Amino acid sequence: MNFMIKAVRGLSLLCGIVAAALTATAVVVVCQMVFVRFVLNQNTIWQTDFVTFSLVGATFIGAPYVLMTRGHVAVDVLPLALGARGRWWLAIVAATLSLAFTAIATVLTAMFWMEAWENRWVSESMWRVRMWIPYAAMPIGLGILTLQYVADLAELLTGRSRPFGLEAPLEDGI
């Protein structure tokens, strides 16, 4: 169990690094695009597509890292209002529903990716990028996000982590 959780955390960390690299690369390409357009007075062909696909890809691929670090926006009014047992059950239900959603989304986006691959879709811009490349970020990111939810749920069920990451002591034995 520990190996699985550590492996998923390592994968989520790698996703965070890839997402940061995609974002940084997009910033550099935007700067290059501005230079080419306004200083050299030339047209840009691939830059807009690249930046769009990179930032969307960073969003999907970075999601497992955000979940692992609890970097998302959270409203913890209800968990704080509940007792330890209610907080634990709420965390289990929330993690299970989130796991189900991401698993379904992984399958659906994998089917979408496969359709782009099989039909050899390309973008409508002059760059004509093969769409399976940017579309791959969806099933990859969501698949690893699903694994991160499995790891989080396993940590909750085995008592390795507190519900919602709250450090309050669990007074009723959960």
UniProtKB/TrEMBL annotation:
Q: Which residues cross the membrane?
A: 50-67, 88-112, 132-151
Q: Which GO terms describe its biological process?
A: C4-dicarboxylate transport
* Stretches assigned to the Tripartite ATP-independent periplasmic transporters DctQ component domain: 27-158
Where in or outside the cell?
Cell inner membrane
Question: NAD as a keyword?
Answer: no
Q: What Gene Ontology terms describe what this protein does at the molecular function level?
A: transmembrane transporter activity
Described function: Part of the tripartite ATP-independent periplasmic (TRAP) transport system.
Subunit annotation: The complex comprises the extracytoplasmic solute receptor protein and the two transmembrane proteins.
Identification of the protein by name: TRAP transporter small permease protein
